């Protein structure tokens, strides 16, 4: 059983739509019964769904890595997703399936109890989790989708992979030790005069981007989804008009994720480019799904450049080039 998603839709040039694969974990209850837990992942992150493969133990693997398996000539780790989430499920592995993902330039297999269907929805239907859930960057639920009588939890797979593969985590990046980035008094002073809006639904990723930009000197403001980001930018226009100020008094550049509740990053770029004050503001898309096709979509909509999420080391250099007009090597 090998099921490849029939569509690779992420967003069709800013239409604010996506497709998610709904999958399930059967939670064992203390009294002996089970409860179905519903989760989701963007189709664009899924390579295929397969039967549980034979695995080989991997030395010193993280506790929830069950081993590695070979698929189409590539070695892929198999992650016990229920174990990582702390959800006790039936131990009969033969009845389960594996979702093979491909994003952040790496492949992983996630063991789940079943995959049910694909939903095509608007990002407007994707809700942010409660304030309680998003209070910490340790939370792994980035969004919630209501379908029929069920709540589907959209998981932060970047966070999960960073936890399982700490050596590959962007948390290890320290801009102050990056010899490609100039951090002297003059450059820090230039950056301190500039403000960047960071838009990302993952508190974990928002913190990493904010820390990187702030460490280089930039002022940073944040928004947890495209709608909040757009609302902030519209409010800046209102204040500038009211006080007869240039827009640069409030914001000089934007870093945005693509996948976000309420409004995705592609649609955010499209909306910002329709506003006179933001027709030329630097916008960099920072996404785990930056394929050639999605990069073209982002650039066609008006983004200045794109970064694939592991490459956080490119962030400050790109913002310098667009916001400070400081080209590398000059």
Automatic annotation (TrEMBL):
InterPro entries: Chemotax_regulator_CheV, CheW-like_dom_sf, CheW-lke_dom, CheY-like_superfamily, Sig_transdc_resp-reg_receiver. The modification 4-aspartylphosphate is found at residue 257. Keywords: Phosphoprotein. PROSITE patterns: CHEW, RESPONSE_REGULATORY. GO terms for biological process: chemotaxis; phosphorelay signal transduction system. Gene3D superfamilies: 3.40.50.2300, CheA-289, Domain 4, SH3 Domains. Residues 195-324 form the Response regulatory domain. Pfam families: CheW, Response_reg. The keyword Glycoprotein does not apply. Residues 17-166 form the CheW-like domain. PANTHER family: CHEMOTAXIS PROTEIN CHEV. This is Chemotaxis protein CheV.
